[in-house]
């Protein structure tokens, strides 16, 4: 019974936070609400006994949004007000209702299926995190390693590109800047 109550509480809070994200004219309010919405989404994982995914949701997504928050504070002028005009509210509400119905249908479709237990058998002696490890390192080992290699190559390429640009910038800076001579 508590799962149902918790589900509706988290659903209401998540939708409210993401509504603030969409409707807010202040970038910092929107980013704060986005971080809150991501934390409330992790509540769904905890309700489903997927503690590992809940913690990953909090750490990864909310951490990324906090980095976005820091950049937003640096780059946006948050003191000025932004005026936004919605020309057609009916289209926005219609698309919102259609997308909500699609999301509910997609999420409820596996519940209607009787084959769900046969497709994903559960082992009672093994915990949630251990099952993720077993699946990652047996069935999905090659894609997991390929993704790790691709991320490593992208990180090295980013460092190389940044160092080349930094060298070019420093060379331009040395050649173009003339310092004022001292006056006597």
UniProtKB/TrEMBL annotation:
One of its GO terms (cellular component) is plasma membrane. InterPro entries: NADH_UbQ/plastoQ_OxRdtase_su6, Nuo/plastoQ_OxRdtase_6_NuoJ. Gene3D superfamilies: NADH-ubiquinone/plastoquinone oxidoreductase chain 6, subunit NuoJ. It is found in: Cell membrane. Its main location: membrane. The chain crosses the membrane at residues 6-23, 28-48, 54-71, 91-112, 140-162. GO terms for molecular function: NADH dehydrogenase (ubiquinone) activity; oxidoreductase activity; quinone binding. Its EC number is 7.1.1.-. Keywords: Cell membrane, Membrane, NAD, Oxidoreductase, Quinone, Transmembrane, Transmembrane helix. It catalyses: a quinone + NADH + 5 H(+)(in) = a quinol + NAD(+) + 4 H(+)(out). It is a multi-pass membrane protein. NCBIfam families: PRK06638.2-2. NDH-1 shuttles electrons from NADH, via FMN and iron-sulfur (Fe-S) centers, to quinones in the respiratory chain. Couples the redox reaction to proton translocation (for every two electrons transferred, four hydrogen ions are translocated across the cytoplasmic membrane), and thus conserves the redox energy in a proton gradient. Belongs to the complex I subunit 6 family. This is NADH-quinone oxidoreductase subunit J.
